[in-house]
Amino acid sequence: MSASRVTFAAAAVMLKMLFRARVVVVATVLQPVVFTAIVSLLLRVGSRGDPTLGEAMGATVMGMWSSVLFFAGGMLTRERRQRTLEMIVAAPAPLLLIMLGTSLATALMGLYSLVASVAVVTFGFGVPLEIAEPGAFAVASLAAIAGTGLFGVLLAAFFVMFRQAGIFQNMLEYPVWIASGVMVPLALLPAPVQVIGWLLPPTWGQEALRDAASGAGGSWSASLACAGLGVGYFVLGGVLLMLAEQRARMRATLPLS
Amino acid sequence: MDSRIPAIEVRGLRRDYPAPTRRARRAGTVLHALRGIDLTVLPGQVFGLLGPNGAGKTTLTKILATLLLPSSGTARVAGHDVVADTRAVRHAVGCVFGGDLGLYERLSGHDNLRYFAELYGVPPRAARARIAELLDLVGLSGKADARVETYSRGMRQRLHLARGLLHDPQVLLLDEPTSGIDPVGARELRTLIDDLRTRGKTVLLTTHYMFEADEVCDDIAIIARGRIVARGTAADLKAMVTAGQTIEIELHGLGAETFEPVRGVPGVRAVTVESRDQVQLLRVQADPDDALPGKLHALLGGAVVGRMTVREPTLEDAYVQLVEGADEAEGSARVG
User: Fold this and answer.
1) Which of A6, A8, A13 to mutate to test the interface with B (most CBs of B within 10 A)?
2) Who contacts B153 (Cβ-Cβ below 8 Å, separation ≥6)?
3) B107 — contact with chain A (CB < 8 Å)?
4) What residues does B251 pair with on adjacent strands?
5) pLDDT tens digit string along A39-52?
6) B123 confidence band (pLDDT: 50, 70, 90)
7) I need a surface site. Which of B43, B129, B272, B282 has the fewest CB within 10 A?
8) Distance between CA atoms of A253 and A163, rounded to whole angstroms?
């Protein structure tokens, strides 16, 4: 059994299902457009000039985080509700690889966020499409997708391990946007929040994309931090998932009934 | 599979569940779903596990599918331990659970199978041929590209079966596969199980339909209250109650209290009541006694509205007697 085939199959199934849900498509299409437009309008109305391409990257990461939080984070809960969780656990493929594929697929939807954000500032606000470091920008995009996606594995494992934690799923969207510095610069936030921010892959993903777009330097190290944090969370998620599966087999909680 | 290794071997298997309510859990109440099951299923057998709801059939199936851990005892599938060799068991077993759920509704039947083929490590080229073959086998070739959300219950059940067979498992676990599907679909499914037997597959079929077990199973175990109360071929089980008679009486509008005295009549082994529209069918299993029909008629008086028939026991009668026997034994043990 090939690990890459299982991951790819899980990603393909997730994308197919997401694209077939009308509400998901509408939310995914509109969200980055709305976020980018709001950020750009705020900058213009606040007499701080037109937005830059780098500033639009905050909206990209916001979209990426939302899709990972809701689609990957809730994946195992959804599988449990539709009784497919038992079926995938009964298969010999490791649950971790299935989760990896699912999370990467949802993070991949962030690519659309990126394109939509760039399109809004370019065509809607007349910002020239100039990327200072195209190579670093490509790597930063991949790092943001991978880092945020791998973080989704930990979220999914956490929500399935502690069912009550699912209640906080809806509440996690804004705090992470704030703590990762996409709404307000991280430096303006209280020190404890800054520490939390540094531990979040979206923080580094946004920084890597912004720096690569503006040519401020530091994009490569931010990309590395984003991917590194993602790998760490993936390992942690793997351990948690293993414990969750073992506990579910012991307590008979794989199905909801 | 090595014919000397049992396809399924279960020894002293117990499974307890914590009580569903917090108060009962605090009081230390534990539900005993399986209470020391011993079972051996040989390769190539179609083995029936018959029992009422809550008897422990699904719990046993889920332990064999590695979805549940036993509280104690051992279970081996194709020679692999379900706790220690989980991955090997998952390769050897195909699971089919009854019901509408358990499929990806927004995907087509074909996509569902393709995904699970990957999860079971079926090579892509082999998977293409296998999926086409299985869709044909379960009669879904014409609807393979339609979304599962448009499938009828019978179609879903057949898709479940195709998924269970994708990786050509040595052992197939079928948990009430015909539950809720129409008689034609159920008959097709039984034909399919028969076909699997000719291919040398081992099948563990849980059901509460007697005729189904009678029709397709080589060997049957009756499970009640977490224990196996009888084991043998359908003929063996019937023979356990053939030294007796089954009397069926049609009655009208009687309360349960009316039937209680019947249980106390000497020679009566089991009494069940089945409601059919306005009429109730009282089924009495008893020792051979030519005078018994007359005694029952006298006892029930004017309540008898239709036929009274005396016949040879069926597998269903054997089942009812064995399950009721287990209930009574449990009741007396609790009283004692």
Assistant:
1) A13
2) B100, B180, B181
3) yes
4) B280, B304
5) 777 777 766 666 67
6) very high
7) B129
8) 10
CB B47 within 8 A of CB B204: yes
Cβ–Cβ below 8 Å for B90 and A82 = no
User: What whole-number distance in Å separates Cα of residue B176 and Cα of residue B172?
Assistant: 12
Distance (Å, whole) CA A57 – CA A143: 13
Mention every residue, 6+ apart, whose C-beta is less than 8 A from residue B156. B100, B103, B148
Tokens of A91: 């298969």
pLDDT tens digits along A55-89: 778 878 888 888 888 777 777 778 888 888 889 98
Percent of chain B with pLDDT over 90: 32
Q: Which among A233, A228, A210 is positioned nearest to A141, based on CA atoms?
A: A210
Q: Among partner residues A6, A20, A249, which is closest to B67 by beta-carbon distance?
A: A249
Q: How far is CA A252 from the centre of its chain?
A: 31
Distance CA(A82)–CA(A17), nearest Å, equals: 13
Q: Looking up tokens 């099951």, which residue turns up?
A: B37
* DSSP for B229-247, written as a single string: EEEE-HHHHHHHHHSSEEE
Question: Environment class of residue B40 by beta-carbon count within 10 Å: exposed (0-12), middle (13-18) or buried (19+)?
Answer: middle
Mean pLDDT, residues B286-301? 79
How far is B164 from B170, CA to CA, in rounded Å?
11
Cα A242 to Cα B107: distance, rounded to the nearest angstrom = 28
Angle at A185 between CA A181 and CA A188, to 5 degrees: 115
Tell me the shortest Cα–Cα distance from B266 to chain A, in angstroms: 43
Backbone angles phi, psi at B285, to 5 degrees: -105, 130
Residue B121, judged by CB atoms within 10 A of its CB (0-12, 13-18, 19+), counts as middle
The rounded distance, in Å, linking the Cα atoms of B285 and B283 is: 7
- What does the pLDDT read at residue B302? 65
Please name the member of A20, A86, A92 whose beta carbon is closest to the beta carbon of B120: A92
DSSP one-letter string for B117-133: HHHTT--HHHHHHHHHH
Cβ proximity of A99 and A207 under 8 Å: no
Q: Give the side-chain half-sphere CA count within 13 A for B228.
A: 19
